[in-house]
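Recall the central idea of this unit: under ordinary conditions, the amino acid sequence of a chain determines the structure it adopts. In this exercise we apply that idea directly, starting from the sequence alone.
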Amino acid sequence: MLLSTMIAIAGIFVATLFFLKRPERADRVATQFAGAHRVLLNKYYVDELYNAVIVQPIKKVSSGLLWRGVDAGVIDGTVNAVGLVVRGWSAVLRRLQTGSVRAYAMSFFMGVVTILGYYLWR
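Accordingly, the structure predicted from this sequence is:
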């Protein structure tokens, strides 16, 4: 624990010396070791790698397959199909629902005759 603390204090001292007291030395070291400076400045390119390997493929799969395929195709297609079926059957049932008691009584009578005929002929 003492060694880690001493290394941290030495790092703080070097950083203070380089960046606060003599910033021209930091610029000179940055130009002298330009490749290492660029890698460290871009944080070892971890964010760019993560974006290219993880984020972008997930975005492509999510927008292409899940959103357009599953959500828009399957889910919205099912909801729209149910709406079309209900609309079609309502057009058929609207013709049967006339409001005439005589028509309802006749339909009831025909239904009873059909059921009785089925059981008698069986």
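The first helix runs from residue 2 to 21.
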